[in-house]
Amino acid sequence: MSKKVLVLIEIKDGKLRNVSFETLTVAQQVAQGGEVSAAIFGSGASSLVEEVNKYGPHKVYVIEDETLTVYTTDGYTQALCQLIEEIQADIVIMGHTSIGKDLAPRVAARFDAGLVSDCTAVSVEEGEVVFTRPIYSGKAFEKKVFNQGKVFATLRANNFETTEKDVQSEIISYHPVIKDLRTVIKDIVRKTAGGVDLSEAKVIVSGGRGVKSKEGFKPLQELADVLGGAVGASRGACDSEYCDYSLQIGQTGKVVTPDLYIACGISGAIQHLAGMSNSKIIVAINKDPDAPIFQVADYGIVGDLFEVVPLLSEEFKKV
Ligand code: FAD
């Protein structure tokens, strides 16, 4: 049965987030011939509509309200709820980003609807939309089907193919009524600036306690730069103050799914694996041949990371 699907498009640093293209592609699939709409918020949103169009939504709602320029839970909830009512969406999809994680449960609760968070696969089986998500820190997967009501889902980045679609979208300037905002963001002071976004990076070079110091992260950063990737870390490295907690990957850090994950001096504790074991290719560099990380690695290098990592950088520079 065809569905009306609404996708939240996210902008970061003036650009559309890749996960938004993934959500749009999934939306086409689950709509089963129904209408796909996209909602894009914030100043400059209209200049990015062309890019959204490439992924074929039938309608793009542009919401350029000045109170919604910066994300607030309250403001976005009000706007999105009104839009969902207006288009009578059956399924609402967002990225499993910090915004999606915050917004989706709140909006779903307003509609007394179900939410499947952190989906790694979505399929349509005999007309039913099946959402797959990892449970028990990725040791098992559950499949969820909803028999009635609206459905909300957040999708884990880097898990879905993106497909462009040649459809002329209808662009609609949407003006929700935003009132009694409890939070107003005056200014954002960023801790780190620039670089590749860890949660969407295709390549991650990650360091653990074996990196031994802040300085020790330099060869990892160099390898990440050569490969056009980002640097991540284990909690061991963060707790030891070798790097910032914003880099932490794992159960209590970020969940990542890059094409290539290079773990350097990381033992492979279950809590770390929870954040990276779905990476497409895992390379582990560890001087202990019995380190558990080798059990999940596709390629293992037993050696000193301070010798191996610079060698890898040199070799990749030649490619
Ligand atoms: P270690 O376990 O100390 O391993 C260091 C590794 O480096 C060793 O295997 C060693 O052989 C190797 N090594 C040392 N020197 C070198 C060298 N020169 N060259 C090559 N290899 C070298 N951890 C996370 O990562 N993410 C989380 O989100 C997270 N959440 C947690 C939540 C809870 C509730 C708890 C209890 C723990 C959590 N942890 C998390 C911590 C986790 O259990 C581990 O303690 C942590 O992952 C260990 O970090 P590590 O592998 O860097 O350090």
Automatic annotation (TrEMBL):
Sequence ranges assigned to domain Electron transfer flavoprotein alpha/beta-subunit N-terminal in this UniProt record: 5-192
InterPro entries: DHS-like_NAD/FAD-binding_dom, ETF_a/b_N, ETF_a/FixB, ETF_alpha_N, ETF_asu_C, ETF_asu_C_CS, Rossmann-like_a/b/a_fold
Transport in keyword set: yes
Superkingdom of this protein's organism: Bacteria
Pfam families to which the protein is assigned, alphabetical: ETF, ETF_alpha
Cited SMART domains: ETF
Protein keywords: Electron transport, FAD, Flavoprotein, Transport
MF term (GO), any: flavin adenine dinucleotide binding
Co-factor(s): FAD
Residues the entry annotates as binding FAD: 209, 234-235, 248-252, 265-272, 286
One GO biological process term: fatty acid beta-oxidation using acyl-CoA dehydrogenase
CDD domains named among the record's database cross-references: ETF_alpha (cd01715)
PANTHER family linked to this entry: ELECTRON TRANSFER FLAVOPROTEIN ALPHA, ELECTRON TRANSFER FLAVOPROTEIN SUBUNIT ALPHA, MITOCHONDRIAL
Family: Belongs to the ETF alpha-subunit/FixB family.
Protein name: Electron transfer flavoprotein subunit alpha/FixB family protein
Natural source organism: Metabacillus arenae
Taxonomy of the source species: Bacteria, Bacillati, Bacillota, Bacilli, Bacillales
